Amino acid sequence: MARPRLHIADRNYSSWSMRPWLAMRVGKIDFEEVLHDLPEMGGGKPIFGAISPTARVPALDLGDVVVAESLAICEWAAEQNPALWPKGANDRAVARSASAIMHSGFPNLRNDCPMNIRRRTDASRMTQAGRDDAQRVGELWNEWLKRSGGPYLFGDYSVADAMYAPVVTRFVTYAIPRSSVAQGYIDRMLGEPHMAAWIAAAEKETRQLPRSDIA
Ligand SMILES: N[C@@H](CCC(=O)N[C@@H](CS)C(=O)NCC(=O)O)C(=O)O
């Protein structure tokens, strides 16, 4: 098999790229990383159209096929290393559900608070709907951590943690109010070595996307 190539964009901004990158790193899966400049919203077609059927990143090039969509790439990673999902069937089902909830949900939080790892601001410009999304994320983390006993959402680090990693950075960037349980989870996630490496690299990047850096 050719060495898998994971196409990603700027670490500071590309929340969807971060998810499978983390899953693959934590899962110790060998891959080549191809870093692209993230265009302004919707501007990726000329470059990303040649990489992925969705003209978006992340995209995983396996040589004879290209896998689009962050969650599908995480699923591929978990086929290479099944430890990326919990062992128990019910736990696996809930972790998959948690990942799907993130993949398709919390649009208000995502719109109000674009990922911007380097930035420090406050939550004053968030809409009520965005605040409600953030509160719900905190409640779900609490529920899952209580159920599993931690330290990660479903015990050991799983795809679900990789899926929520960009939300962890949003809580920090926008100083979103959170419970002590959520803060504990945020601290654990920030201390995870692969996430720390992604953040350190994001902090060194210099490109700026005005839509994510103003207001
Ligand atoms: N649902 C997709 C979302 C991918 C996505 O929106 N990627 C952004 C970068 S984070 C992108 O490629 N944007 C290019 C553009 O908007 O032109 C996934 O889960 O992978």
What is the CATH top level name of the largest domain?
Answer: Mainly Alpha
Strand order of the largest sheet: 2-1-3-4
The assigned CATH architecture of the largest domain is: Up-down Bundle
Fraction in helix: 40-55%
Alpha-carbon Rg, integer: 17 Å
Small molecules held by this entry: glutathione
Specify the structural class: alpha+beta
Can you tell me the residue ranges where pLDDT is under 50 for at least 5 consecutive residues? Answer: none
Overall form: globular
Quick synopsis:
By secondary structure, the chain is an alpha+beta fold.
Question: What report would you give on this structure?
Answer:
The chain is built from 10 helices and 4 strands; from the N terminus they run E-H-E-H-E-E-H-H-H-H-H-H-H-H. The longest helix has 21 residues. The radius of gyration is 17 Å and the shape is globular. Helix 1 packs parallel to helix 3 and helix 7 packs across helix 8. It starts with a strand and ends with a helix. Strand 3 and strand 4 form a beta hairpin. The chain is an alpha+beta fold. 53% of the residues lie in helices and 7% in strands. The model has no long low-confidence stretch (mean pLDDT 95). The protein folds into 2 domains: 78 residues, Glutaredoxin (3-Layer(aba) Sandwich), CATH 3.40.30; 117 residues, Glutathione S-transferase Yfyf (Class Pi), Chain A, domain 2 (Up-down Bundle), CATH 1.20.1050. Strands 2-1-3-4 form a 4-stranded mixed beta sheet, covered by helices on one side. It binds glutathione. Glutathione binds next to helix 1. Glutathione (GSH) binds next to helix 1.
